[in-house]
## 1
Amino acid sequence: MKTTARNQYAYVSNILITIVSAIFGYNFYQAIVHPEKSNIAISLILVVFTSVMVRKYGYQPVKEKKKDI
C-alpha cells in the first residue's frame, strides 16, 4: 500500500490567495471607478501578507520516504 504525504498548508494557501485576489480585484475596481470608496491600502497589506505566508508555508516540496518490503 502506497501512502503519500501532502503539504498541509497548500490547501490553506490556495484559499487565502483566492480570497485576497477577490478583495484586491474589487478594491482595484473601486479605485478606478469610485476612488472615494476604495480601500486599496488595506488590499495591498493583504497581498503582502499573503505573499509572505505562501513563501513561508506554501509550496515547499515534501520529501517522501520509500520503504522496501
## 2
Amino acid sequence: MTRLPPRLVPDGPDADDPPAAQGVVTRAYGDTLSLLDQVIALEADGISGLETLFAEVIDGRDGLMLPGFGAPGLPAPEVARLDHEIRRRIDVLVARGRNDGSVVSTIRTTDVVVLLSLLAQGLPEYPGYEAAATAIALRFVESVATGVRPPLSAC
C-alpha cells in the first residue's frame, strides 16, 4: 500500500489503514479543490491568480493533495478523477492568463501542476523551506509574466 505523505498522516496507530487514509486523502482533495475554486472566483488577471495560488499552496500545504502524491485508500479511478478536476481548475487560471495577456503563451497547465505539487510536498527537515518555496514560486511567476510588472516581494 502506498503510504500517506508524512504531512498528511493523522494521529494514531491506524493512520495508514484504508479507512483513515481514505478520509484524510478525501478531505485533502476537497480542500485543494475548494482553494482552487476560491482563487478562480477572485477573477483576478491570470498572473495574479497564479501568484495567489502559489502563496496559498505554500501556506496550506499541510492539508492539500495535489497530483503526484499518490492517494492511499482511494481507488485509482477516483484518484484520476480528482487529479483531473484539479488540472481542469488550474487550466482555468492558465487560460485566463493567456487570454488577458498577463502570462506567456507557452505556459502549460502541467508546468503549474508540477510546481504546485513539489511546493506542497515540502521538506520537513529544512527549516528555511517556506522562504525557499516562496522564492521558487516568485521566480516562476516572474518567468511567465508578460509586460512590465513591479518586482514581486512575496507570493
## 3
Amino acid sequence: MKEKMIDNRDMAEIRHTILTGVTVSVGSLVLLFSSGAQIVLQCVFECQEDGIVRAGHGEDVSSSPVLFGLLNRRIVDATVDGNLILSLHFEDGGHLRIAPERNGLESYVLTTRYGIRPIVVI
C-alpha cells in the first residue's frame, strides 16, 4: 500500500530554497532548508554532482559526507513521483534522489509549515 501525503504546497516549500544544513544523528540525517522546511532521512539516497553518483543511507552516519557537497545550493525543482521517490534538482545541475524503502517503517519525513508528512511504504 502506498499513501501519497506530500502535496503541491509542501513541494513549493522546498522549491527555490537553499539547502542550508545537514544534521547528523544516530539513526537519521536531517536536511535543513532556508524556507524552514526539513527532511528527515532514514532510507537510501543518491547524490549526483559533476557526473559522479554517490549513494548513502539516512541511518548510516558515515553517509553524511555524500550530502555535504550540496550545502548552500539553490533548489530549482522538487518532485515526488508515484513511487514516492523525492527528487531535488539544484541550480548547478546537482541532483538528490531520496527513495523510500518498502518495509512499513518511516523512510523519510518532510516537515513544512503545512504539516509533517511521514512517508511509509508497505
